[in-house]
């Protein structure tokens, strides 16, 4: 599914990713945990194609295709989805309008026909019910005036409708109370299947109590320094990241 080989990236004169190696097979959920400033979110931005970053070495393959040769919209059409830590507001664009445009844009890029309005409405209703999203929320401009929980539910709704094969969740638990976290996690877990992989980026164990990963990776100073099963997250919660700082040197 996703293979990252010796990935190096910098912004201006600062190197942030310093040789990331990671393989996520189809159907697996991998978690990346690390300190603030370790490079976790940079990894998500580089994978999605954020233009501020310069790739200085390495490659990233999604089902054998080189993501780094693609523009951001091409990566999305190829099946990559990034859920942002802080989803942006888009005044003047209704959430429903945005969702339909996103779906049909990707379908067009893949050579598929546009989704009819009745089919689109049924898909939104089905996915929205799972996430406790009502129609009034969907009529509002995208993310404008949304609470933290509403923004994250709107992003998981996008994920449910677009059906990506590789999902990157960048600190999805940020700004969520426990009730919202449970709703969002339930929506994410409903999308887990043998053909869809996920990369969950987080600081804290609490998210991984709800979205249980197959593999946990420790990120330090721009690279993965340790990998293990879900118990590694418990170890981090108990001891912190100090034990892994030397491994990044």
TrEMBL record:
GO molecular function per UniProt: ATP binding; ATP hydrolysis activity
Keyword ATP-binding tagged: yes
UniProt family annotation: Belongs to the ABC transporter superfamily. Ycf16 family.
Record keyword Plastid present: no
Domain of life: Bacteria
Keywords: ATP-binding, Nucleotide-binding
Residues covered by the ABC transporter domain: 2-246
Pfam families reported in the protein's UniProt record: ABC_tran
UniProt name for this protein: Cysteine desulfurase
CDD domains for this protein: ABC_FeS_Assembly (cd03217)
Gene3D superfamilies linked: P-loop containing nucleotide triphosphate hydrolases (3.40.50.300)
């Amino acid at each position: 599914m996703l293979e990252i080989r010796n990935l190096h990236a910098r912004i201006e004169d600062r190197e942030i990713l310093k040789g990331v190696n990671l393989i996520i097979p189809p159907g697996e959920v991998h978690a990346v945990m690390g300190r603030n400033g370790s490079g976790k979110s940079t990894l998500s931005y580089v994978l999605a194609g954020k233009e501020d970053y310069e790739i200085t070495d390495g490659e990233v393959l999604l089902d054998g295709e080189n993501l780094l040769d693609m523009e951001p919209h091409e990566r999305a059409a190829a099946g990559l989805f990034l859920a942002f830590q802080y989803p942006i507001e888009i005044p003047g664009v209704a959430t429903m309008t945005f969702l339909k445009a996103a779906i049909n844009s990707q379908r067009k890029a893949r050579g598929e026909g546009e989704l009819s309005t009745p089919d689109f409405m049924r898909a939104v209703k089905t996915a929205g019910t799972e996430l406790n999203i009502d129609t009034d929320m969907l009529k509002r401009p995208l993310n404008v005036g949304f609470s933290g929980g509403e923004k994250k539910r709107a992003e998981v709704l996008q994920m449910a409708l677009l059906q990506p094969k590789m999902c990157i969740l960048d600190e999805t638990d940020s700004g969520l109370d426990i009730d919202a976290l449970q709703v969002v996690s339930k929506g994410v877990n409903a999308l887990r299947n043998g053909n869809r992989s996920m990369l969950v980026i987080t600081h804290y164990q609490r998210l991984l109590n709800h979205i249980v990963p197959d593999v946990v990776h420790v990120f330090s100073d721009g690279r993965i320094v340790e990998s293990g099963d879900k118990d590694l997250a418990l170890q981090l919660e108990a001891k912190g990241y100090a034990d892994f700082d030397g491994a990044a040197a």
